[in-house]
Amino acid sequence: MSLVIQHLSPQRPALALPVLCLLPLLAQAEPIALQPMVVSATHTERAMRDAPASVSVITHEELAKRPVQDLQEALRGTESLQFNGIGFDRRGISVRGMPSEHTLVLVDGKRISTSSGAIAHSDFDLGWVPVEAIERIEVVRGPMSSLYGSEALGGVVNIITRKATDNWKGSGIIDGGVREDGLGGQSHQVGAYLGGPLVPGVLGLTLNGETRRQQETPDFDNERLSELEGRNANSGSATLSWTPDEAQRIDLTYGAGRERRWRNTETGGTNSAYYESADVIEREQWSLGHSGDWQWGSTQVRAYRNRLDRDNARSDGQAPSDPQRLTDSVVDGHLSVPLFDRHLVTLGGEWRKEELEDSSVNAAGDESALHRALFLQDEIAFNPDWSLTLGSRFDKHEAFGWEASPRVYLLHHYSDALTFRAGIGRGYKAPSLKQLSPEYAAVGGGGRFTIYGNPELKPETNTSYELGADYQGAGWSLTGMLFQNDVHDLIQTICVSRCGIRGAEVRNYENLEKARIRGLELGGGIDLPANFHWSLNYTYLDARNLTAGQRLGDRSRHMANSVLKWAPTPGFDAQLRTEYVGSQLAYSSNVAYALPAYSLWHLELSRKLSDNLTLRGGVENIGDERLADQNENFAYTEPGRTYHVGLVATF
User: Fold this and answer.
1) I need a labelling partner for 526 at 20 to 30 A (CA). Which of 40, 226, 315, 325 fits?
2) Does residue 367 lie in a domain region?
3) Of 79, 64, 68, nearest in space to 9 by CA
4) Which SS3 state, helix, strand or coil, does residue 19 take?
5) For position 19, which CATH number holds?
């Protein structure tokens, strides 16, 4: 299945009021029985149609059909996701109009270092896992603080990695891309996965690695500046899995990566100077976990540590940014016990120490915070057609004390084809260490302004409501979802003095009292004659700053994704993907300006040369859409028309 076909499958929540009136009439149509399994919505494995949340899944097979170098590219086409600019032409992942800082990224359910609160313009959370190591990606839309705590205010992206099996299996990919205009941006990627038993039935080994490079792209109007930065990355990991008996599994994992980014830029001002700025990002993670599947229930206990280092260097005598290190040390666990035939009760806890080494955070150059949490969840199955999930997490933050994050989700299978869903959840996000520090001061915007910390900040909170239904017929599907986020104390940077004066502008972190983000998700798919399948999703978003009475910036009102897939023979398939991003507002020095809508078209072809070897190729951004030609105020750039070709091998 293609990326969007999977997303539009009726196992996921959805609702459109006009559709609801028709769905009961369709309930007798033949359903499709195949059900993906997900774990991110409850900590327990469930079929996606039974998941008490809005969940999308992207599989390894879908990723293998197109060029993917990081998580942002892997998620393109997912409903209600927008990839907005965070500076330096980098992109963040926004779920249902929530800021990208409110999207929590996990690897096998484990946190990775959340760098955006400590490093300006950071998208460094998106490159931890080589693409060949990914089994699937689960995207949960809506607050999941009831399970995962702070940072899960908007949603969760959980990368599930491939595990060792009873037989040795492996895969590899070689891919290259070149821009038509010859302005740079050439890329190559080599990745591999290998997993199997060292001692059959007892000890398994999983290895993966990747190297990738993308050349810097000069600006079309000024070749001394970079339109897109260059990237050179190497990463890999190894996992030993010990199964002492049928009930237990112990996993020891070590992963590391090194990435270099470089871009040509200028100082600005009357005596502007050009120079190259280069970042080196080093990542490291180790983890030790035990899981048990007992007669009375299941358990999981883990200890893991993430570290991210960032060092900056600049040419031509320009002063670099000071180095930064983020470290998260975590111990967590949970147990799930079935009770009284109807209940599956999960009890868990987490201890986490967050550390930041950065000369700008305070005079000492380091800061830390201790997080402790307990959570309780009850999955109640009244009968095969009705289920109710109740849960809450209780987090204790050093600065704010206890925060509760409850969630209620009701699910009803009207028939094998039709499912209704309704949920309410609350999430919170504590301000970052820098945002809270009274000593924090940093120059931003390429020297345009200085931003200061604010110890009076409050945690951001979000109460989310969703009501939906999904339907799967014979050869077609229809989905829809209404949702609303009521956000309080949203943290934004506000100009407080000398607004618009380059180098003198002063900004503070401030809480925005009230914001409301409501919307509608629609989707569908249909089998067409001649082995075609067409699927699409559409999101309408109404994001309002209720305090100021104006639209929130950097959020498109209309977004749509479409995939037309053709598979005339078992050995050949093609897909034409379309991304539509509607018009939006952006703000500079508290002044709003409009950005126009645009569309991207991509073509991917795949041909099996043998049972184990597949040739793929295609064209990305067929129309060579250049956002700067439409409006120079876009905070990001889409790569120009790019041709790519690659080989995928499996055994």
Assistant:
1) 40
2) yes
3) 79
4) helix
5) 2.40.170.20
**Partners of 251 in the β-ladder:** 241, 289
Tell me the three state secondary structure of residue 41.
coil
Domain enclosing residue 216, as ranges:
3-182+198-650
Half-sphere exposure of residue 370: CA atoms within 13 angstroms, side-chain side:
3
Is residue 608 domain-resident? yes
Residue 192 lies in a domain: no
Which among 49, 55, 61 is positioned nearest to 78, based on CA atoms?
A: 55
146-170 tens-digit pLDDT: 999 988 999 999 999 999 888 999 9
Q: How far apart are CA 585 and CA 595, in angstroms?
A: 6
Strand 155-161 relative to strand 103-107: parallel, antiparallel, unpaired? parallel
- Domain tally, the chain: 1
Counting as low any pLDDT under 70, the low residues of the chain are: 1-35, 269-270, 445-447, 589-590
pLDDT at 500: 77
Q: Residue 628: which H helix or E strand, with range?
A: helix 627-630
Structure tokens at 501: 């004066």
pLDDT digits (tens, 9 = 90+) for 540-553: 999 999 988 899 98
Question: Is 316 within the bounds of a domain?
Answer: yes
